[in-house]
Amino acid sequence: MGSEARNHHYIPQGYLRGFATCRGEKKRQWTTHVSDFKQLRAFDVNVKSVCSQRDFNRVEIPGTDPNVIESRMAEFESKAIEAVRRVAKSGVFEGEDATLTLNLMALLAVRSPEGREGMRAFHERVKRMLLAHITASKETWDAVTGTSTELEYEKARNFSERGEFTVAVAREQHLRTEIQLTEPVLESLAKRRWTVYTVDGSYGEFLTTDRPVTLSFIDPQNVPPLLRGSPGFDLLGTEIHFPLTRHSVLVGRWDKGGTAEVGNQSFVAAVNLHMLKYSYFRCFAASKNVLYHDPFTLQLYWDSNLIERYKGWTSAQGGA
After folding, report:
1. How far apart, in whole angstroms, are the C-alpha atoms of residue 81 and residue 141?
2. Using CA atoms, how far apart are residues 32 and 48, in angstroms rounded to an integer?
3. Does the predicted model carry a pTM greater than 0.85?
4. H or E, element range at 108
5. Given a cut of 90, is residue 45 above it in pLDDT?
6. Rounded mean pLDDT of 192-216?
7. How far is residue 166's CA from residue 7's CA, in Å, rounded to a whole number?
């Protein structure tokens, strides 16, 4: 068998190129500027090397091509990214280009390593609670497992109390869940009114993050604090942001939209701050100089000091 691709992107390279610069004449390389809020550093890197994991879409099913999902995803993503670029360039969001873009958004909204870890952690919490319940007494343990010796029960109870285990979820189950979730998310996206905002880059550009599709409340101060971080896609009073390229962003609301607009500098800075706020831990930009607002003072910055300012913001929050 020939060589096969094992480095699978959960955010497509083609999409990331919209926030990168092309370098090299003979061997073209697309380089994006990464701000990493976990490692607290910034660096330039080829888009091939970010937002990917080994075997992320690989399946291990007898009689099935292990790359069947990755191959089909790559075929769809190629078409969708071309549509994204056309929408970004024309400002027209309709027809097949709109359909392909929304399908890509639905996929990106449900597919991420963080989402998979959240699902795995949920299964682990359930399994731990279940094991604690059935080992709470020998009577319960025997009723669930059948009769056992005192030694077998004590081993099981000690194992539960120590908690020295983890629960894994098969990659195939993650893939199945993601595919199942994509359809209802897509149906919800299709109901919204979408506005395409464009800029020429002369006064700043849009960035994207490792969470490129964001869902948030429009007026979070009117939402109970415990609910602010978990809006639903069908919930009124919410909006969705999806940066298309460095020069365009798509915004979906229920109450207004459906037009093409030119965003001013303050709008670009506000969108970038919003994307940073909802990212997992990385953002991607075509330039080291990023346009954004200070989250506390709303002062506008257009510089390469994002990581240093982020350190200051987190320190201010910790001392508040």
Report:
1. 54
2. 10
3. yes
4. helix 95-110
5. yes
6. 97
7. 25
